[in-house]
Amino acid sequence: MSALPRPLSPFSKMLISTRTAWSRLLGVMGAHAPALRRCLAGLVAAAVLQGLALACVFPLLAALFPAPDQGRALGWLAAMTLLAGIATVLRWRAQGFEYGGRLAQVTHALRLRLGEQLRRMPLERLRESRAGEMNALLLGNVDEQLNYLVAIANLILTATVAPLALALAVLAFDLRLGALLLAVFPLLWVLHRWRRPAFARDMRGLNDAHWRCNADLVEYTQGLTALRAACQEGGRVGMLHAGFERLRQLQTAAHRQGVRPSVVTASLVELGLLGVVVAATGWVVSGRLQPAAVAAVMVIVVRLSEPMATLVSYTMVLEMMEAALERIEALLAIPALPVQMPQAVPDQFDVRFEQVCFHYADNPDSAALMNFSATLPAQAMTALVGSSGSGKTTVARLLLRHADPQAGSITIGGIDIRCMSPEVLNALMSVVFQDVHLFDDTVLANIRMGRPDADDAQVRAAAAAAQCLDFIERLPQGWNTRLGEIGDRLSGGERQRISIARALLKNAPIVVLDEPTAALDTESELAVQRAIDTLVRDKTVIVIAHRLSTIAGATASWW
Q1: Does 405 sit behind a cis peptide bond, omega within 30 degrees of 0 on the bond before it?
Q2: What is the rounded distance in angstroms from the CA atom of residue 27 to the CA atom of residue 397?
Q3: For residue 357, what is the enclosing H or E element?
């Protein structure tokens, strides 16, 4: 029978946790990781030299009292000044990582990496997150993780490495005083171990609450028009206030639990350093130590007591940074959907589903599709008809490869879509959703997203074919009118026609229409239907709809 593994000691757990946090930090630094290593090495060296400079107080005061020795005193003063000067230069150069703009470059590069990750990650995974949560991660968590990194590292090293170097240097002048100063460090370790687990848990809970509040606030703001129309803004704001109250309670609990360790640590550190002074005074009274040593100890205690006593507060910030790092690392670790080899580009555009089975990650016990098979012929319209929840939209999402099915295959022109790069697959399809998303940009720019290299004449031709010219010309600045967030300056039918113009400009061989007229009035539906008739000409069309008018031209239907 094999022996059970020995449990890890607290020291081993701390080393593993520190190593993990360090590796996460270097991971998000990317190409700037070597510069960060140099920065922190410079701060460590500066802290060591600062401690050695402070240790020079011992021989300096010994040279001045009781009988001044000018030569020795000037020598030690010069040594202290030189060490302090070099420490200042090293610290200044190290902090150039922040002040020189490199930290801003790091946060910019990290946001670009996160943005690229959002672009390449499966859309089904992205749909599992709320918009406010992504906003908190891309803006708040990046700032929490990096903005104060160098400043906090400098404070922590000043509170730990400098006193340790000082205590070791004092050993060379007086073993007893050096040993007493070193005895304070195990006390700091015990206090750190005492408060860290609970505080780490509190910080993660607080971070999660911030995320939920961000998501609730964005959701409430975006839905305020609908809520007012339904006279429900009061009910939803009550839910929002409940989230804020939960956040307040967590903040209060975190502050309450953080105060006691901070006060206890500060008190015990100051008592420990005071004990060194008392012991030194006793040795002077008994004639075993020179009076100058007591003066040196008092200078050192005054210099070190505050940074060492506030060390707990600095480590609190580290816990917040580590929680932010975990979220960023988790997002960056989501893999893109794999592209199988050999990669191929189809030259035919019929679509085939063969024995496709799929369930959503948040509902693994309920199949959205089970053994679904269908052939959607090229250059024809196929309608997917059924009640809500029957899997129609899931079929469209799988074709667009928002996710991969757990079983079965989907092919275009006989080629499995898993053998197509995202760029190739996206180029094959234009999509018109029921809920159109337009950007806070001009009409021209919103349509041009279908084909960024299109000139103005091509954009205008697509808009004309999509029945857009009449309302575009009525806008205040015409084609240069900004449409507002999600295109809220336009009606539902107008937004839908802009979306169709975008699809016309793209001119992809496969068109997916996801209930494009479901929420429109009769007049808007007629205009949109005319635009759709132009869009689907000579295309492979998959239409998801409830209205018979939308699927009147379909050559095949799946129920």
Answers
A1: no
A2: 32
A3: strand 351-358
Residue 305 and residue 311: Cα distance in Å, rounded? 10
Query: pLDDT tens digit string along 432-478?
Result: 877 778 888 888 998 998 888 889 899 898 888 888 888 888 888 88
The Cβ of residue 1 has, within 10 Å, a number of other Cβ atoms equal to 3
Backbone angle region of 515, left / alpha / beta, with phi > 0 → left and psi within -120 to 50 → alpha: left
The Cα–Cα gap between 414 and 470 comes to 42
Ranges of residues in the chain whose predicted pLDDT is under 50: 1-5, 8-15
Record the pTM: 0.68
CA atoms within 13 A on the CB side of 366: 7
Side chain identity, residue 529: Q
CA distances from 445 to 331, 427, 429, 440, 537 (A): 30, 19, 20, 10, 25
CATH homologous superfamily, domain 351-558: P-loop containing nucleotide triphosphate hydrolases (3.40.50.300)
What amino acid occupies position 173? F
Is there a contact between 414 and 375 (Cβ–Cβ < 8 Å)?
A: no
Contact call for residues 76 and 60 (beta carbons, < 8 A): yes
Q: How would you label 296-308 residue by residue, b for 16+ Cβ within 10 Å and e otherwise?
A: bbbebbebbbebb
Domain 28-332 class, CATH top level: mainly alpha
Sheet holding 540-544, edge to edge: 429-432, 510-514, 540-544, 381-384, 556-558
- Give residue limits of the domains in the chain: 28-332, 351-558
Q: Kindly state the helix (H) or strand (E) to which residue 350 belongs, with its residue range.
A: none
